[in-house]
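Look over this record before class:
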Amino acid sequence: MNVDAFGVVVLLVLGLLIGSFTNVLIWRLPRGENVAFPPSHCPNCDHPLSPLDLVPVLSWVSLGGKCRYCKAPISPRYPIIELISGLAYAAIALLFPLSSFGAGVIGLCLLVTILLAASVIDFETYTIPDELTLPGTAIGLIFGAVNGAALSPLPNFEAALRGALMGAGVLVVISLLGGWVLRRFRERLYPELPIGYQQIALGLFGGLLTGGLWGNWWAALAGGAVLGLISALINLAARRVVRIPELLTLGGSLLALAFFSMRASSSLLVGLQGGLAAAGAVSLLAGLYWWIGGRHEVAEDDDSPGDPTAMGFGDVKLAAVIGAFLGFERLLVALAVAVVLGAVLGLIQRFMGGENKLKFGPYLAMGAVVALLWGAAIIEAYQGYLGLS
């Protein structure tokens, strides 16, 4: 057995084991429980599970889908998740042989685990835990930093950073503009203290202006992010929200885009990229602040007051994960696929009398899988269509 065939077998087994841990994440993270302690136990009778109860798939089959101790039924979701994880890991090892792609294969496996856990949690709770997305983004950047293989399926650090920031930026800008329209261009009633959507909108505006005028992506990122952070520090010092009118930030961003579109195309492109990156950077900093501060994302059906939104903030951070692992171009492919899938399946769901709310995380995850497998070919075909290749 050569090294690549051996790698498929090893990753199949590893995927099954990680699938068992993925079930732990799916159950415990939405409930705010520690994923390591206490050890695995039956959720019905609370009896600790022995090693024989924890063999992926086989334990469930041998027990007839029931708890060994209280005979309560065990959801078939558990072996299904384990099988999906194991087969996905094996497929990655088959499509990206270890002998050619090295440690990048492990990175792709971790991405699959994050996407799988986030999809199931979002489907069940309308939330995507920060414990998955923020560390997941950092892991993607780490793999980018150590990525030295020319054929690696993962981007290098600079491309991973751009992918994470601009990926988060695309979705948060959709949320900003969509929310503004849903409010009929009124100001937010419930701005976050000290950092939130107001500072993200300011980062977008500052990044657009800096990038368009200076023509430098890094300067645009720094300019927009610094403006957002200064606003947050002012809020902290004042101990209240110092309002920044969206007519200035979002309206100004649209005017800046219109202005740069009449100049050189490079000004428009760098300004747009810089604005998205700055908005993404501030949104990730806001997410990190609220995660460390202990605030968890509120489900869309919660009775807490809030302004209407066009995109959940968990989706913004999940886009950062995908961008960090796959790069910005393939993130765009994932987003396009997610929008099409969401529209088609959403219409089917509504036609069948289902709920009107759209859980975008699972569609974004499916889009990421398509982007991983066929993203390069899709991008090449699109560039050929435009005459760019």
User: Anything to note?
Assistant: The longest helix spans residues 265-292.
